[in-house]
Amino acid sequence: MQKQWTKTDERAFTFTIDGAEIGTLNTANGIATIGTDSYTISRSGFWKNKLEITNSQGAIIATAEPEKWYANTLVLNYNAHAYRLVIRNNPLAEWAILAGDKTILAYGLATDNGKAVVSIKSADGQTDYLLDFLLWYLFWPIATENTDDALLFILLASA
To answer: Do strands 102-112 and 93-99 pair parallel, antiparallel, or not at all (unpaired)?
Structure first.
């Protein structure tokens, strides 16, 4: 399975899997469209260190808050589960969602012939694409800062 983000505008992207379009994300306003559903990803809190995802009716469907005020881990509450949303160096910058100690989805940098490329790692059976949209929203500033603008979003998706 090959997951790919393609830049369509300055801060707009299309997400495809094996060439089939799944949805779009505008990182400027955090609006994600998956099929016919629309979601908004936004930062909240005094330090803008919390996240909220709302559906098209305005209901909050996911929240993420820092585990501790000085930590690099957020607790992501989504679909009646508590996940850990972490930023780490593995060995390069990476955002990951963990269920317990198991990484279910990770977006990170990797190297390919001396160039930085985006690497996506998905656990078997991970088909909740809203999590991909959340990680891309968080990860794209790192990706654009560390790769050239022609970004070969040739993503190393592994199960």
So the answer is: antiparallel
Q: Is the CB of residue 33 less than 8 Å from the CB of residue 26?
A: no
pTM for the predicted model, two decimal places: 0.88
**CA atoms within a 13 Å half-sphere pointing along the CA-CB vector of 59:** 5
Strand ranges in the chain using DSSP code E only, listed in sequence order? 3-9, 12-17, 20-26, 31-34, 37-44, 50-55, 60-66, 73-78, 81-89, 93-99, 102-112, 115-122
Measured between alpha carbons, how far is residue 83 from residues 43, 67, 73, 103 in Å? 18, 11, 10, 10
Distance CA 54, CA 35 (A): 16
pLDDT tens readout for residues 63-91? 999 988 777 899 999 999 999 999 998 77
